[in-house]
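Listing 4. Sequential folding, example run.
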Amino acid sequence: MEILLDKNLQEMEQFVIGLGEPKFRAKQILNCLLLGNKPKESTTLPASLKAKLADYVCQPIKIYRDIKGKNAVKFLYELYDGNIIEGILMYHSYGNTLCVSTQVGCRMGCKFCASTLDGLIRNLSAGEILGQFVAVNKYLGGTLKDRKITNIVLMGSGEPLDNYDNVIKFLKLVTDENGFNVSKRNISLSTCGIADKIDRLADDFPGVVLTISLHTPFQEKRQEIMPIAKVYNLDKLMNSVQKYIEKTGRRAVFEYTLIDGVNDSVKDAQQLRILTKGLICHINLIPLNYVKERDLKTSNNIENFKQQLENMGMSVTVRNSLGSDIDGACGQLRRKVLGENKDE
């Protein structure tokens, strides 16, 4: 079925003209959808147009469950076809950050992630990614002019660059001045390292913060925990990161999940410094979220590892584990709920 949230204003104008309606109706429809409403709830659209729109998917997702934590809210969303995805809203001093999913499941196979346990079910459309933003903005009482979400991170379920075209379309929709007008500088895109797509991103949508799921500076070890490294080795990846930095003038962020006995040694810290030398970058150390299906434990050496990097002159922080009290890691809550439904 056709999802109306997939359309920008110009596409919506062509759509309504095709329905035999005047072009100005496009803006009314778009505003209605971006506020999280359905056309039948609109007080400005005529009944005849509402009837025509009943054949289309107007709100592709709805909040299925929300679980409130101390400084975050975890959401399960139900898609129009019955699939379940998840996301998390994190409260910061500088504003509210929404982590969005880009796929149902994931095929990357990273050993520390729950999202990939069921493989890739399907890609999300641009409108389904945008629909997460729409739903949570409405949940918070936001509007187009007074939106309640200031920052977006594409770090939920799925690999954004594995759903490249839909993700680029989403980025254009959410930054559109006719919509939410989110600044590119307030958007981070996390990738496990699809080098050729990073090169395309620098051309197609430069300006977002590029975040690399690195997790080890050694090629052989990275192949063991991140199968994508067999296709795009560290040399290819780092070359693409360097080009992105040069083209955009923005620093890159390297995500580094510390796993006990895997990547938390002095040797790992020293090699990480060598790998990133000369790059404008920041290291974000992440305590490993426990996934019961994985035989991995978080490191007890986080602060010491951080100190080693700082002593070598590196920019580094330890990520606050917002949402750890509510199964905040990607894929955890979805699998729990699907398991509950299976047992019913």
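-- end of first protein; second protein begins --
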Amino acid sequence: MNLLSGSIGVILCLGGNVRTAFLLMLAAAVFDFFDGLAARMLGAYSDIGKELDSLADMVSFGVLPSVMLHETMVLCGTAVWISFLPLVLAVFSALRLAKFNIDERQHDSFIGLATPAAAMICGSLAYYVSLSDNWLTALCAVPATLPVLAFVLSLLLVSEIPMFSMKFGKGKQTDRATMIIRIAFLGIVVLSAVLVLVLGENWSMTVFTSFIGYIILNVISSLL
């Protein structure tokens, strides 16, 4: 279902339907989360399951967000050759997922940005830009903005920055530091939702600001 959602999302996005594509990305994330949760709770692990999970993620959280950035640039009237630059995110997503599968350090947390987090930033931004005409839309219309975003996210995907996960169900006791940072992130999500509601912004900005906050929180935690 993750892979199917991502595949349909790519097709719709190439047809100019960025909004529905983002909703399908969210659906893919829900399927991905509960698939992993069920596997951890039931102890239903297999090598083929691990590989299939990454292959599905490559489409839904690697190819789809890259295509959404590309399509957003096209809709903003950017030159065609420049609009292909965000596809670098798909390449680094593949590298990230391949590293994750063979990295023994990433069982309960992540080293580098997880592909779904990068995808949510790109997808929510593309969704918002398709709806609104404000300073953020104008910023994304600048030819360099979205390629730079894709490049920065690409570097974070393969970085060595420790990043916490929201994985539950492995039967292990969560350490105090991880619990604190998880609570801090949930606080960021709530604050983002409240600000978006008060300011009358679209709900997609809650997703965008929450995951930007996720990155900042992890960077600060790593530095400290």
